[in-house]
Fold this protein.
Amino acid sequence: MDIGDLGPAMKLFLELEGEVKQPASVLRQPDLLFDLYNRLQDIYRIQNHLAVCERYGELADWAARQSCRELQAVSMLDSAIVYHYIDTPRCIRLHQEALIFTHEFGAKRHVAHGEVGLIVARLSEARGDVEQLKELMARTTVILRQALDESYGALLAHIYLLLAILAYLLAGHGVMPWSAFEKYLDLSMNAAITYKTGGEVCMIYNLKAVAALRHGRPVREAGAYFATALQLLRRSGLLFLGNRDLTSENIIVLSNIVRFLSDHGTEREKFSLALEIRYYDDLNDGTQERPTGTVAWARARFAQFEHDVRKHRVLGQAAVPDSVLFDSKTGYAICLGC
């Protein structure tokens, strides 16, 4: 799961959940139950199904309390992440509460994770304030030094991508060279490859595409980056948008891809994407009136996706989400999870 293989991970965790529910199962141990429920919480967050994600979060918290305080710290941090895009003030508050607890009972790496998550959560309120952005960059740099000193390899790609986004925003304000953004983005990619952390790579390619469009580089370059991001989403089973609750970054990246194809894509590319994107209630969508696979059906379905993105910028949302970062020049979305 950590390297992006969501489908196989989901299969194994559901099989394990079936096993632990057996009354005589020897697997019903608090630490194992925590790991199971915590992973299922994250899977349903990634699949944008808030209600199920919250229930598994409650189960993970219960199991953590039966085990040890270090797992409680992990549970608190992972529950905060869920609300990043849908209730940012709550996300920030939960991160702050989790960090107080984690400083006392958690491991150093959990403190670092929590501090990074809190900085990411504050990006949306700081994006227009140069001094706040500089402060967040300084704090992130301190965490980076600690992560390098303590060999937190799995966290490095995330930290470098956060630094890249901060550099991007500061460069947009004219107070940092764009070369700093490119440097951190390359470091993030290198760390993701070195430590096999697949979650950041899709967001890296999304950011590469947005930067290419901002700087007026050839459309085919941005298209290649978006095509790579789409392939990564496809391989990880993330073209299924679940309940479209906007608890994960796949919706944001797909929204960018829909917009890009709307402006620059071929009919074949639009047709293909219309067939691949799925969510729970799409059978009730008016575009399903025509048989799946017909050109007219695919056009109508893509037109609906296009309408959602043009109106609210992110698929499946009732309004433009304030918590999502949008490039000031192109309007494309930039994303990084907590």
